[in-house]
């Protein structure tokens, strides 16, 4: 299927590389506001270039649009693409509030096109093993379910774009921008959260509206409790990996980026356990975190799998693995956490 990309920054390059690596995808075109940026993408990756969105969307060969604009600028191009009967794949977060996401979901449903968010870490083998263990009830009653994202971004990162660190276009700080993948993994495995209590601060960065440090206490629908920590103010020479911990009465597993540090269950399942211990365990302590210090260090393999799932879903007439409602879950949780941090009150999630 033929893909077009809306956006002309670093993430657009990730999308282009992922599409070119697909067996069932063709990079067809780019849209961006600046001719110079569009020309650079076309020179590097091929395809057509547009600076007029209507012309870009009017191309009859274009089938799928990926959106790689700033977070709070996803809604408008998504609505335009849906109206043009193009399938939509949108970078995380799908949008910066549940209400804006609801508009995207409704528009795609009304126009009979597929909407998918990008949560590329869901397609890693380790998270699939984690999810399978949870679905099989191997943890028993869940008790403690935690997520940690202790990353670092220097001041130059926030100064590199006027939209960075703003509520309107970034949607938040360390939690919405950097922590959302890990939050999605946590609720993908441990289930939804029913209430939160949070506190946040901006401790080391200047001239940004949002937090660089946040802590929250989570109360899950299952009855489990948990801790969430997200920061872009934790310096490390290599970058701390993101971690997801799930514990229950019958087992514990600690995921560190793409591999497990702990995989321990009261009731063994030899085939699954042997696979994890031979293929999905950490090689050593202290491994560098993926994208923890440098966002450009993340590879495109997860994006490729995410895109391939969408193409398969369109061909098979099924929802993609990360449809609009799935992608909404993390944003709804994040917005509740922000409300709690702002008001100082415990916030329940509908």
Description of the structure:
This protein has 350 residues and is of the alpha/beta class. It has 2 domains: 2-117 and 301-323, NAD(P)-binding Rossmann-like Domain (Rossmann fold), CATH 3.40.50.720; 123-294, 2-Layer Sandwich (Dihydrodipicolinate Reductase, domain 2). It has 12 helices and 14 strands. It has helices at 10-21, 35-45, 53-58, 75-83, 98-110, 125-135, 155-159, 174-178, 180-190, 270-279, 301-316, 324-343; strands spanning 2-6, 26-31, 48-50, 64-67, 87-90, 115-117, 142-150, 193-201, 213-220, 225-231, 243-248, 251-256, 259-265, 347-348. The protein has an 8-stranded mixed beta sheet with strand order 13-12-11-7-10-9-8-14. Helix 4 (75-83) links the parallel strand 4 and strand 5. The two termini are 38 Å apart. The model has no long low-confidence stretch (mean pLDDT 96).
What is the CA-based Rg, rounded? 20 Å
Mean pLDDT: 96
User: What fold name stands as the CATH topology of the largest domain?
Assistant: Dihydrodipicolinate Reductase, domain 2
Number of helices: 12
CATH superfamily label of the largest domain: Dihydrodipicolinate Reductase, domain 2
The rounded distance between the terminal residues' Cα atoms is 38 Å
Q: Topology of this protein?
A:
Elements: E1 2-6, H1 10-21, E2 26-31, H2 35-45, E3 48-50, H3 53-58, E4 64-67, H4 75-83, E5 87-90, H5 98-110, E6 115-117, H6 125-135, E7 142-150, H7 155-159, H8 174-178, H9 180-190, E8 193-201, E9 213-220, E10 225-231, E11 243-248, E12 251-256, E13 259-265, H10 270-279, H11 301-316, H12 324-343, E14 347-348
Helix pairs in contact: 1-11, 4-5, 5-12, 6-9, 9-12
């Amino acid at each position: 299927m033929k893909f077009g990309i809306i956006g002309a920054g670093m993430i657009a390059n990730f999308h282009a590389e992922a599409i070119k690596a697909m067996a069932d995808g063709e990079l067809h075109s780019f849209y961006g506001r600046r001719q110079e940026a569009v020309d650079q993408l076309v020179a590097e990756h091929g395809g057509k270039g547009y600076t007029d969105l209507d012309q870009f969307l009017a191309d009859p060969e274009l089938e799928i649009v990926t959106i790689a604009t700033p977070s709070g600028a996803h809604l408008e191009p998504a609505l335009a693409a849906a109206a043009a009967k193009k399938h939509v794949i949108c970078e995380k977060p799908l949008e910066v509030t549940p209400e804006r996401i609801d508009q995207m979901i409704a528009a795609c449903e009304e126009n009979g096109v597929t909407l998918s968010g990008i949560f590329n870490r869901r397609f890693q083998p380790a998270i699939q093993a984690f999810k399978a263990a949870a679905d099989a009830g191997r943890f028993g009653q869940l008790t403690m379910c935690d997520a940690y994202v202790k990353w670092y971004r220097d001041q130059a990162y926030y100064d590199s774009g006027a939209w960075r660190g703003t509520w309107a276009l970034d949607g938040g700080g360390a939690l919405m921008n950097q922590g959302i993948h890990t939050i999605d993994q946590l609720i993908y495995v441990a289930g939804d959260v029913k209430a939160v209590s949070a506190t946040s601060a901006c401790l080391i960065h200047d001239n940004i509206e949002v937090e660089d440090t946040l802590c929250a206490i989570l109360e899950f629908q299952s009855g489990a409790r948990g801790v969430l920590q997200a920061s872009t103010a934790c310096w490390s020479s290599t970058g701390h990996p993101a971690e997801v911990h799930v514990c229950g009465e019958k087992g514990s597993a600690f995921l560190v980026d793409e591999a497990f540090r702990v995989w321990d269950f009261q009731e063994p399942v030899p085939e699954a356990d042997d696979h994890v211990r031979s293929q999905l365990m950490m090689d050593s302590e202290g491994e560098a975190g993926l994208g923890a210090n440098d966002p450009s260090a993340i590879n495109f393999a997860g994006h490729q799998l995410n895109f391939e799932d969408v193409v398969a879903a369109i061909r098979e007439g099924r929802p993609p693995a990360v449809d609009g409602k799935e992608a909404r879950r993390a944003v709804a949780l994040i917005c509740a956490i922000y409300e709690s941090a702002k008001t100082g009150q415990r916030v329940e999630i509908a």
